[in-house]
Amino acid sequence: MIGKSIYVADNPAFVGGSPQSIHEQLWAQGLRRRLQVRGAIAAAALVIGTWVLSLWWGLLLALVAAGADALWHWRKRAAESVWRKGQRGERRTARILRAFVEPRGFRVLHGRNIPGRGQLDHLVIGSTGVLLIENRAVPPETEIAEYGGTLYVDERPGKKMAAEFRETARLAAEMLGKRLDGEVPVEPVLVVYGGDLRRGRVSAEGITMLRAHRLPHWIRNRRIRYTPEEIAAIYEAAHSLPISRQALIVR
Question: Sign of the C-alpha dihedral, residues 59, 60, 66, 70?
Fold first, then answer.
């Protein structure tokens, strides 16, 4: 797990509790503040809409603004729920890939293994390239950002973590290249559940970190690299990679 722990040593209310119980306490404590902010957003939308258009448009705009704020918090809580349940996110990411990526012609493998490096959560092979997708669940307050091309996790450089991930992707590319007798670049992508991920996506140190719900659009809207015939060949080569014994999902 990257980032710091949510446990706060000088707050006895949080010492010894499970991640889920602590998160529920923090979420309940923030309810009043969330409702106040939502009310202020709706009131501002009402005033602006009424002034510019009419009262009915103002009411509609207030409802839309309040709904958007509620949706944003729901997505934030859903992202943190993986961490609260002690999971890494493989199952949720696999469902998203199955529903929104595979129908577009992409091929997906789960639970493969790189000898000496460990498990590959997901390999996505399609017209826009080959992606190694890993999952990480982090405490809600973990800050992940990029400054000047450098990755920071809670204001600490994430160079080592990024280097290890890039090396796993390099080894995967090397194994595919040997099977196909050619170069097959593999791009490392980290799906983050929980934490504070600036603007929903961070690219630094040669890796991309993003939210699960942003993954399908990001995959589909990259530049075209492979033909259907090349995709089929790469998929067959990747399918021969050994299966991980620790994998939750295998295909």
Answer: positive
